[in-house]
Design brief:
47% of the residues lie in helices and 13% in strands. It has 273 residues and is of the alpha/beta class. The chain has an eight-stranded mixed beta sheet with strand order 3-2-1-4-5-6-7-8, sandwiched between helices.
Length: 273
């Protein structure tokens, strides 16, 4: 993995920052090319420090890229120390949910190249989905660099504009929780139908994981896969008839769920200004 002439700076190394760092190191980035700033470094970071990673030291020269992996509420405290890197030379890649690119430009300078990203929690196992959108100051090479960094933990898509991040948050950002909730609901249904709790939980979890793998490996659409498993007048058809009821089925429920998450994302972005 090549990141440019200078090093990579990672600001914040919690769950998502650690997942990214693991992905980069697995892709061939040398520990001595990375500087991590984190107020509570883990034992794992200490171990990496022993083999070359730079931990909580002054960064000089300016890094090629700074990945900001802190919570939005501490962004204003974390960024001012990096102001010298703003203005053009260093690419800033943000995974701070809800933090707009204008917030970075205000803190770092109006000409600072920024790529805003929204990964999701499956990134922790290398199966994430990350949406990216650059500001006007990020060059094509810098956007490609940001894309490469995020592909270390899964797949990526590039958005047309920043407001689409609210929809991304509602679908792929919050989506894993919806899937977990569905898995819980299926397990509860299993116990209501007479299964032991442990069996119901195992059946529902394995079914969701297996269906995801099937969907990922198949060239067919989810709709086509659904049709294949649905025999006319069979048990699946009977269940789907209830699940897909026109006015009170899953389509309407998911739309309302996503709309609520979308609205909250808009509210949080306004509060962060």
């Amino acid at each position: 993995m090549k990141i440019g002439t200078n090093s990579l700076l990672l600001v914040g190394c919690g769950k998502m920052g650690s997942a990214l760092l693991r992905g980069w190191l697995s892709a061939g980035l040398a520990p001595d090319q990375v500087t991590v700033l984190d107020p509570n470094p883990s034992d794992w970071l200490r171990e990496l420090e022993a083999i070359g990673l730079h931990l909580n030291i002054d960064v000089d020269p300016a890094p090629s890229v700074a990945v900001i992996a802190v919570k939005p509420q501490v962004l204003a405290k974390a960024i001012p120390g990096l102001r010298d890197f703003g203005g053009g030379g260093t690419l800033f890649v943000s995974i701070a949910a809800g933090a707009s690119m204008s917030a970075f430009e205000n803190l770092l300078g109006p000409n600072t190249p920024v790529v805003r990203t929204m990964p999701n929690t499956p990134a922790a196992v290398g199966a994430g989905m990350t949406a990216l959108v650059p500001n006007l100051h990020a060059s094509p090479d810098q956007v490609s660099l940001a894309d490469m960094l995020m592909r270390a933990v899964g797949e990526t898509v590039r958005l047309d504009d920043e407001p689409q991040m609210h929809a991304v948050t509602a679908i792929s950002g919050s989506g894993p929780a919806y899937v977990f909730a569905l898995t819980e609901a299926l397990a509860r249904a299993g116990t209501e139908l007479g299964l032991r709790d442990d069996i119901a939980q195992k059946l529902s979890s394995a079914m969701v994981c297996g269906s995801g793998k099937l969907m990922d490996s198949s060239t067919e659409t989810p709709a086509e896969l659904r049709v294949q498993v649905t025999s006319p007048n069979g048990t699946t058809a009977a269940g789907l008839e209830k699940l897909q009821a026109k006015d009170a089925g899953i389509d309407q429920l998911i739309l309302e769920t996503a709309q609520a998450a979308f609205n909250r994302s808009v509210e949080l972005s306004q509060e962060a200004r």
